[in-house]
Amino acid sequence: EPATLRCVVEGRPKPTVLWYKDGSPLPSAEDGHRVLLEDGLLFLRVNRGKKESDEGVYWCVARNLAGEAVSHNASLNVAVIRDDFRVEPRDVHVAAGEPAQLECTPPKGVPEPTVHWLKDGQIYDIEVSGRVTVTESGNLKILET
User: Fold this and answer.
1) How far apart are CA 99 and CA 60, in angstroms?
2) HSE on the CB side for 98, CA within 13 Å?
3) 2-78: which CATH number, 2.60.40.10, 3.40.50.800, 3.40.50.150, 2.60.120.560?
4) Domain locations in the chain?
């Protein structure tokens, strides 16, 4: 997914813009992953495998013969989710009137994913039922079947 950071600068003569990340100068990447433009734009193409290398604190510095100006910091946090559930729901058989639990552990992700259950293709409204709860880990507990 793309991320764009913008550093708007004015000055005479026209300032050059330098980008920094976590205290180090940020060069353009030859693979097109990171592109710095003269007008102060920084384009990042965040790849799943490079997520950690893109996260950080960014800022820009504008310089010309008159001096330099440093921008405020901007933090880049990349949201991710793995493709596979750690535990997928399975069929459960219980006697009438007995409690049931359908297990589901969502994939790891940042921020932490939340689980929503569907019944017959529709989001199951836990609040209306009153006898159904979802555990912190994502399991569906039915108090009485």
Assistant:
1) 59
2) 7
3) 2.60.40.10
4) 2-78, 79-145
The pLDDT score that the predictor gives to residue 49 is 60
Tokens found for residue 6: 């913008």
pTM (predicted TM-score): 0.62
Mean pLDDT of 65-82: 91
Closest C-alpha among 117, 113, 60 to residue 83: 113
Q: In which band, very low, low, confident or very high, does the pLDDT at 80 lie, cut at 50, 70 and 90?
A: confident
DSSP letters spanning 112-132: PP----EETTEE--HHHHSSE
Q: Is 88 left (phi over 0), alpha (psi -120 to 50) or beta?
A: beta
- Taking residue 113's Cβ as centre, other Cβ atoms within 10 Å add up to 15
Measured in residues, the chain has a length of: 145
